[in-house]
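Fill-in record for AraC family transcriptional regulator.
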Amino acid sequence: MCFNNNLLFQNKYVIFFVIAGQILVAQSLNKGISLGSFKNNDIKSIIYADSKDSIKSKQQLQVLINNSKLEANWEELAKAYRIIMYLSDKKWRMNYADSLLNAAKLSANFDLIGQAYLTRGILYYDQKEHKMALDNYILADSYLSQTKNQYGIYKVKFSIAHTKYYLGFYHEAIALFKECIIYFEQENDVAYLNSLHSIGLCYNKIDKYELCSQYNQLGLQKSKELGNNELVPYFKHSEGVNMVFKKKYQRAIKELIQVIPLLKNKDDFANQTVAWYYLGKSYSKLGLNDKAVIMFNKVDSIFVKYNYIRPDIRQNYEWLINYYKKKKDDKSQLLYINRLLKVDSILNHNYKYLSLKIFKEYDTKKLLSKKKDLEKSLESNNRILFWTTALLSMSVVLLSYRHYKNKKRYKLKFEELMHERNLPKTENHIKKELQSKNNITKTNELDINPELITVILQNLEKFERNKKYLEKDMSQTKLATHLKTNTKYASKIILKYRQKKTIEYINDLKIDHIIKLLQSENKYRNYTNKALAEEAGFGSTQNFTKAFNTKIGMPPTFFIRELKRKFPL
């Protein structure tokens, strides 16, 4: 969505509930919100928690917590936990949320229990655990629906709708947002405007661009009538993005250029990033690539600084790679290829429910494009069919001879491999391995601190022992992260102490693992190359077979066939 969820919990003042995803609530947290502005949350001694006096506030709350426990006043205890939770560091909030839920359950107050589940859902959402967030929202709804707290019920509806939007269930989200619009129109201006904004975003996602525009215009109109301008930039932002999908690029540029300064004033880097991306896309569509590349590089600068990325912004890097490819700028092209690898890693983690769908759709588009190309070329291929047929017989002869030579070479290699793997290690071999591992003092050529080398080698051994190399698409960057160092140091140390380049080192570990499985467990001999590639964590079957051939000197299918022949079941 177009707002920055990271702001939701950066509050300086106590709040008792947050509707996940509400722009105005998110921004208000930094300004301070009176406890009186929230319903059903009155504590005898209202405590404001200014960041300058948070220690004193926590001390007061601890006294309140202790007294509430002694008096078995579970409702008061639950409310105290809610306050101290928002005063605490993020890493402790879930612990306090669990305590809040336990106290609420002891109170047997369905309203408190429902709000406690809602709070946990919000925290899970902030951690990008969207399935857990949705589970807690549903539990919150089950309790609140048995109370008269209509306001709380619709807070949960909004939260569920927002999560379903994130997970890609746009039609379900629209149905819930419609209910929220009807209810909040009479109850809460902020929630009402947020619901209008959110449903517009949903309609954009299902290609209902006119409906998206209608809700954006309605949101601007209602903002003016209600005298609330907080969401005005976001309705304009949504409309600017929507114009790109409607292919009205000049209009999109005008809208987005106007809204960027407003977002900058709110320190909303996330929506600035989205605006820059769709500005770049508009310029690109108009053939203004010099302007487009400036916008796309701005997007990259935010990614480098904050690791902020969304699935729709991924194409930013595909565009940059192609742009620098045409410019024949190999250095920049390599930079953005590496950046895209990191982007995909983050998307697969943060958007795991959407990433498969997104990449599948992308692959489908490529396949459809390829299909069209093949159909166009089919006509011209018919013209060369005669010559192809004439040469085919000669090619068959040459291929048969090559196959015969390869098969002979593979068999010889297989026998050598079986012989080597069955031989015990010689004393000289063992000494050589120990010398390689202990040769840490000779580090001048590496220009790395010897103590750091020791730590990295320990991490490398842990990496090998725990078989982390089997992770999907293990790359040089991911390996460096496991070793707790940078890619430069990782590659130097692996080259010296494993006598291999990084990718070769990773691939060899994967292939050795597969070889051991094939030799020790018969079931793996029935696996396809694709299944074996997945077992070893290769990104594709092609990468697996290539690595296997490089390491072993023969295709995996031939190796398995010889294993079955030599060691039948």
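KEY FINDING: Confidence is low (pLDDT under 50) at residues 1-52, 358-371, 423-434, 439-444.
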